[in-house]
Design goal:
Two copies of one chain form a homodimer. Chain A has 454 residues and is α/β, with parallel strands linked by helices. Chain A folds into two domains: 13-90 and 250-452, Aminopeptidase, CATH 3.40.630; 93-245, Glucose Oxidase, domain 1. Helix content of chain A is 39%, strand content 23%. An eight-stranded mixed beta sheet of chain A has the order 1-10-12-11-13-16-14-15, sandwiched between helices. In chain A, β2 and β3 (106-107) form a beta hairpin. In chain A, α2 packs antiparallel against α15 (432-452), α3 packs antiparallel against α9 and α9 (286-305) crosses α15. The longest helix of chain A has 21 residues, at 17-37.
């Protein structure tokens, strides 16, 4: 135990005091710049209010790409370009509708799942079977044929970090439709992946297994899910009418939007900082992931504003198509590999623009040990946890392809699933200072990684 | 340095592993109870939506007292009583109005300051002098006579912990009117104590110095404050019309609402947990301080629900009149002293129902050292900082009178001054899980203080 403590002692104090003081002052300068002259919030306002929703293939996607290019140029990138990639083009096709076909019609607030096929304009009406888990589905597979399967798996409120609850519940959305279709279900309703107090349905991507029929699928708001479950539990025969007009059109062309500051000492070593530019269609994608985009741009702007000359090349990437295909992130890593680029480090912000708590890393234990020496430089700005495990969907391919070390900003997660993929993910749900504190900590991490290496 | 590390080693590991594990499980049980069966959010809904604003002396105050008594009884207090105290009875008297009397009338969104005197129904119109600080007031004191002094001192955005900015700016609200009246000002406008992105004015208490005339005073929304300041800076002659109907009526009777769980081993040692029941009139007092009230009640409910029998007597106190007099907290300490009560520890939650970050303490260094051993028990629930300095306005008199050690819950402070004393301090601004996590950490602290002592 003493040995461990001695190691901790070395780690805590191994950064020379003078360097520590200089770093502290530089990070204070970054913070002052962002808190006093920050552009992230105004950039987010323009993205959410003037561009709005921007799902892959939509008109909003192209407007968002133009916004990204212009904003990166205005906020100081040396060079800005678009990297083309094929993206899926799923459309909702019209208003989703559903109701419980009881004596008194009970409307259900639903959103078709991303990538799902519609019912057609006549809709479908069928009895509903309540399924609480995949285990229950297997046990009751003989009862499923001709029915609408309603997955009512609940978000686990006991998990303090809500992303753990999302990881736990998410499979019902992504795999649920095909697993029900396997046993003859005609459609799927899924309880929204959320612990909100309201009734907004939460959409999100799903994937069909090509071995089974592609049946329609929609998310139900939490209060309506409770009503539906209660009616079925009360042993009523419950039928639901469902109409969705969703369809998948042929792939189209989208782009990663990339802005660069050339490194002064190791220009071939690239540090990527990004978020994803696409967002679901029912809202403005303010937290998911407008926040990550404007924070990433703000890192570049602030480092430049305080006169910091990065040793390594800093690249801001606004990734295409995270939500329903990950084509942008995949393309970025493919091209990096094809060109033999050196990707030194990558940081993503895609967990909301809420007050920062920590960073999660996908790095070696030795690297994490080094990074943890920097903790006292972050705590004045709200980051107290530097832990193994983290990154981001868009930068994942860089790690898988090129072993690039990754980090992901971890904001407070309590409010995230109130708004995630729902109508209320709007600019007004973002707090200016929380957004800025995220950008400050991101810029501090990039400054330290660039200066000291990993 | 090694010595210091060795001390740290002892502190970190001095709680026996078995005790640590038992405590961890008990706190997990508290957390599960609150996250799964919590009553705080529903209690807050009733307080904010059915009672609403509850300033001292108002009808809302009496409704709130009845709500508090009933809720403490329902949520498991052995004994509930009201402790009478005199409270001030300030009334707004009607709608506050102000505009810049330019060619085109420009309305200003204002709220008269609490405890201020009104202009009378005719209002007053006078030239405005822009004053950015008390230093500037002293330099320009000869220009003040007959004018409205507009204090435009800005919230310091660079201070990451926003309460520090409030402490810095607050004197312009509390002392500004009398300091201007001293030099002949006829009224005061004060920039709202906030860093919000909106224009809601933020009221709050002020205190007249009896040596000078009691002139009207109001807070101005931030955007309007900027407009007004800009016009004056542009060297226009700016006059403002101001009408407020506020007045101070004679003192009336209010009550601290108190609920108790008798201690099993040291029943004479009292642990007080509280928030304040009063709130400003323009909103629902959801964060300030409905949140603290329902969290305090939730501590009692949850400890009882998991079957914990406190050694010491736990008292939940919903304090009267924090906002414009502190009569409730003062009375509580006076009576404690008069009765010779032993007040072992006191905890307040009065910084909003936002996600918890830490606790601030007013304790001896030895006590803080002991408390910090418990840190690993808090971090799974979001509390990472246990620091010297903190408590709460209502429990302050206990410390001053009886040297009672104090603690205050420190939630994330970024959003607090968006809603503080403004129209948007409503139930909808509170997140259920953030509120609950605050209650979990409070209950954990009380459990540990009760079990291990200080």
């Amino acid at each position: 135990m003493m040995h461990r403590m001695f190691v901790l002692y070395l780690l805590t104090f191994s950064l020379p005091a003078l360097a520590r003081q200089e770093d502290s002052l530089q990070i204070r300068a970054i913070a002052d710049e962002i808190l006093e002259h920050g552009r992230a919030y105004e950039n987010l306002r323009v993205l959410t209010k003037q561009v709005g929703a921007r799902l892959s293939g939509s008109a909003g996607m192209y407007k968002a790409e133009a916004w990204g290019k212009k904003t990166l140029e205005q906020d100081g990138a040396d060079k800005v370009w678009l990297q083309e990639c094929k993206v899926p083009h799923w459309v909702r096709g019209g208003k989703d509708e559903a109701y419980i076909a009881a004596t008194r019609k009970i409307n259900l607030d639903i959103l078709a799942l991303g990538n799902s096929m519609g019912t057609g304009p006549k809709g479908i009406k069928a009895p509903v079977i309540l399924i609480n888990s995949f285990d229950e589905l297997e046990l009751r597979k003989d009862e499923v044929k001709g029915k609408i399967v309603f997955y009512n798996y609940k978000f686990n409120n006991k998990l303090v970090k809500t992303f753990a609850a999302y990881a736990d519940a998410g499979k019902y959305r992504s795999q649920g439709p095909s697993r029900a279709a396997k046993y003859g279900a005609v459609a799927v309703l899924v309880r929204s992946m959320s612990n909100a107090a309201d009734n907004n349905p939460h959409t999100g991507g799903m994937n069909y297994n090509d071995s089974f029929p592609k049946i329609p699928a929609a998310a139900v708001g939490l209060r309506d899910a409770n009503i539906l479950a209660q009616l079925i539990t009360d042993k009523r025969d419950v039928s639901v009418y469902l109409k969705t007009l969703a369809k998948m059109l042929p792939d189209t062309i989208g782009h990663n939007v990339i802005g660069e500051l050339k490194g002064s000492e190791f220009p071939d070593q690239i540090i990527t900082i990004g978020g994803h530019l696409d967002s679901w269609d029912p809202a403005e994608g303010a937290h998911d992931d407008g926040a990550g985009c404007v924070q990433s741009i703000e890192v570049l702007r602030a480092l430049k504003a305080i006169g910091y000359k990065p040793k390594r090349t800093i690249r801001i990437v606004l990734f295409a198509n995270e939500e329903n295909g990950l084509r942008g992130g995949t393309k970025y890593a493919e091209e990096a590999k094809a060109k033999g680029e050196q990707h030194y480090f990558a940081l993503e912000s895609d967990a909301g623009g809420f007050t920062p708590r920590g960073f999660g890393f996908t790095v070696s234990d030795e690297q994490l040990t080094k990074i943890r020496q920097w903790l006292p430089l972050f705590t004045p700005y709200g980051v107290f946890e530097l832990s193994q495990g983290g990154g981001g969907a868009d930068i994942g391919p860089l790690n898988r392809t090129l072993k690039t070390p990754l980090a992901g900003l971890q904001p407070d997660s309590q409010r995230y699933f109130d708004i995630h993929h729902a109508r209320n993910d709007v600019f007004e749900a973002v707090n200016k200072r929380e957004l800025e504190l995220g950008a400050i900590n991101m810029a501090a991490l990039i400054y330290l990684v660039d200066k000291y290496g990993l």
